[in-house]
């Protein structure tokens, strides 16, 4: 009987990993390497593209911030985590596929389809992360979270390699086909999670005759009141709100930064993101084990220090300008000094960024009462999604305004856009540093479930 139980648990855990494998295709293709730059340069164009991209990300984040705690409360007492996961995944993959129909000057459609796909992607993560407690134990939660993140990185790499041949075609812009590939990849990879992950704990249920939505709001109100007694969780939430903002800003604008400062085209961005995914997988595994053996707080702080150092290096790397006469299809990416250094910075940033993200989600379960895990994820999601609403607006608005400032000072528009982007990078560093400093005041949590009290 025990062998059968163990077999079921292993299959449930492995199936849970597959979802990270699939949704990383969305992060890699839509957010990092292809659609963000396609939207900025082709659909909109110029510095306005950066501003509208930030606005789109922010709108999606605001919607998820409002929805996620309520949905989390419903999921806790109905055991509907998987049902909500399926629903929001479907929303994401459908509108990711519809991005295929977005072309130059389709600004409204490009924003609308992306916002809906992003809402599905972000909201589904609330329920996917909440299932972590169903596929792990207090002793191995950090390692399981880190392994899931690492497997996700591998999924992102495979997805990028699948779309890379499209980028080699010079006769036509075939980038919209990458969005179809992304949707199919995400869907197929998510199926094992839908079929075989088991929600292990019994749902507490609700009083007879009590409506689901009404009861959800009542439980949510109780959660907000109860959270007040978890002082370390509140302190962690504030720190997370700020440093996670910096992380999400970096992810949302990484491709735009690379394209604006260093002239990376889509194919070059794909190669760069593949490197980031490889180092990210290593970082997730390493920092997950550090969290289990020492503390989640220490692992996150170490990753943030490395990340700040890597991003700060961008101020010392000269912008990439291809020499005259460059005609190679691959543009000899790694022969230019600035590109080599940018690759190193990206590799280090990917290593530390993934480590911080993987450990952060496992720390929630270390703070949360077992019966309110999803609600605590929902509560943290309010902070995280609200911060990701603010962050993109800060980056996009600051970059756009500083671009206009330098143009008014007589600078060339292209140079002004580079300077504006550097201001945006500075805002990312500020969020990471402030969040890391606040994390210092959270009491250390050792491996396994704790309360931080």
Describe this structure in words.
This protein has 453 residues and is an all-alpha fold. The chain has a single domain (9-197, 212-322, 329-439), classed as MFS general substrate transporter like domains (Growth Hormone, Chain: A), CATH 1.20.1250. Helix content is 78%, strand content 0%. It is built from 14 helices and no strands. The longest helix is centred in the C-terminal third of the chain and has 36 residues, at 373-408. The two termini are 38 Å apart.
List the defining traits of the structure above.
single chain, 453 residues, Growth Hormone, Chain: A, globular, 78% helix, 14 helices, mainly alpha
How would you summarize the topology of this molecule?
Elements: H1 2-33, H2 35-44, H3 47-78, H4 81-98, H5 107-130, H6 141-167, H7 175-196, H8 212-227, H9 231-262, H10 266-293, H11 296-312, H12 337-367, H13 373-408, H14 413-439
Helix pairs in contact: 1-6, 1-7, 1-9, 1-10, 2-3, 3-5, 3-8, 3-13, 4-5, 4-7, 5-13, 6-7, 6-10, 6-12, 9-12, 9-13, 9-14, 10-11, 10-12, 11-12, 11-14, 13-14
């Amino acid at each position: 009987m025990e062998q059968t139980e163990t077999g079921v648990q292993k299959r449930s855990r492995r199936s849970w990993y597959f979802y990270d494998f699939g949704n990383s295709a969305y992060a890699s293709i839509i957010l990092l390497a292809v659609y963000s730059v396609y939207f900025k340069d082709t659909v909109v164009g110029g510095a306005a593209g950066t501003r509208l991209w930030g606005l789109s990300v922010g709108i999606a984040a605001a919607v998820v911030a409002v929805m996620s705690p309520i949905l989390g409360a419903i999921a806790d007492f109905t055991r509907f985590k998987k049902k909500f996961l399926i629903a929001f995944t479907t929303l994401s993959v459908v509108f990711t596929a519809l991005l295929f129909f977005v072309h130059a000057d389709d600004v409204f459609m490009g924003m609308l389809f992306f916002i809906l796909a992003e809402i599905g992607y972000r909201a589904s993560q609330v329920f996917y992360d909440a299932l972590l407690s169903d596929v792990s134990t207090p002793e191995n939660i950090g390692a399981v979270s880190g392994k899931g993140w690492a497997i996700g990185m591998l999924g992102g790499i495979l997805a990028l390699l699948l779309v890379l041949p499209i980028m080699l075609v010079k006769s036509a812009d075939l980038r919209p086909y990458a969005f179809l590939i992304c949707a199919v990849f995400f869907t197929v990879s998510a199926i094992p999670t839908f079929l075989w992950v088991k929600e292990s704990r019994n749902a507490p249920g609700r009083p007879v005759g009590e409506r689901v939505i009404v009861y959800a709001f009542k439980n949510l109100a109780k959660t907000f009141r109860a959270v007040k007694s978890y002082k370390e969780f509140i302190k962690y939430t504030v720190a997370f709100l700020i440093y996670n903002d910096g992380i999400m800003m970096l992810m949302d604008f990484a491709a735009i930064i690379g394209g604006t400062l260093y002239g990376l085209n889509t194919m070059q961005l794909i190669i760069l993101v593949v490197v980031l995914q490889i180092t990210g997988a290593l970082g997730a595994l390493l920092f997950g084990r550090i969290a289990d053996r020492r503390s989640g707080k220490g692992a996150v702080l170490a990753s943030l220090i490395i990340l700040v150092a890597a991003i700060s290096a961008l101020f010392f790397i000269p912008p990439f300008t291809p020499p005259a006469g460059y005609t190679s299809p691959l543009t000899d990416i790694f022969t230019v000094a600035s590109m080599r250094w940018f690759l190193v910075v990206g590799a280090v940033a990917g290593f530390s960024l993934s480590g911080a993200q993987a450990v952060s989600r496992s720390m929630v379960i270390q703070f949360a009462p077992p019966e309110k895990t999803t609600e605590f994820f929902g509560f943290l999601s309010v902070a995280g999604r609200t911060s990701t609403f603010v962050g993109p607006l800060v980056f996009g608005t600051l970059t756009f305004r500083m671009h206009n400032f330098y143009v008014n000072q007589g600078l060339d528009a292209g140079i002004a856009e580079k300077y504006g982007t550097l201001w945006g990078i500075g805002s990312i560093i500020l969020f990471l540093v402030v969040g890391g400093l606040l994390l210092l005041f959270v009491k250390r949590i050792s491996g396994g479930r704790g309360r931080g009290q």
